[in-house]
Amino acid sequence: MTASQQPLLDGTFPDPAQQQSADYETWLAVVWPHFIAAAASGRTFTCYSIADTNRLPDPPNPRAHWGRMIHQLRDDGYIRPAGWACSDRPTTRHSGVRTWKGTAAARREAAA
Fold first, then answer.
1. The domain containing residue 61 runs over which residues?
2. Structurally, how many domains does the chain consist of?
3. Is residue 95 situated within a structural domain?
4. Is residue 62 part of a domain?
5. N or C of the chain: less Cβ packing under 10 Å?
6. Nearest to 43 by CA among 106, 104, 108, 100
7. DSSP readout, the chain?
């Protein structure tokens, strides 16, 4: 154990892969390829499903930056809204969440 690492309430230590990134741009460089790959796959997904499956780190401001990144993907033409589903995130009690689907631009990006 290092001096900067504190155990969680259950006595275990946090997984380094789940640590929070120091700045938005560094975090975005890590998570962006995973979302481009999900968009290129042609399947419908939620933001949390990709983050959880790939064990992606949290951004500096999780409440704002996950949405900011998804909207950036949409604004850049990589994803489009596909509908709604119940969230798999344990803390949301299955509340409604937007689902996304990749566009042709995402398939081209993944192929490049």
1. 19-111
2. 1
3. yes
4. yes
5. C
6. 100
7. --TT----TTSPPPPGGGSBPSSHHHHHHHHHHHHHHHHHHT--B-HHHHHHHTTPPBPSSHHHHHHHHHHHHHHTTSEEEEEEEE---GGGTT-EEEEEEE-HHHHHHHH-
In a domain, 4, yes or no: no
Taking residue 33's Cβ as centre, other Cβ atoms within 10 Å add up to 12
Residue 53: inside a domain, yes or no? yes
Residue with tokens 């999780």: 62
Look up tokens 């033409």; give the residue. 77
Tens of pLDDT, residue by residue over 18-72, are 566 678 999 999 999 999 999 999 899 999 999 999 999 999 998 899 999 999 9
pTM score, whole prediction: 0.76
Residue 11: alpha-carbon gap to chain centroid: 27
Instruction: Name residues whose C-beta falls within 8 Å of residue 11's C-beta, 6 or more positions apart in sequence.
Output: none
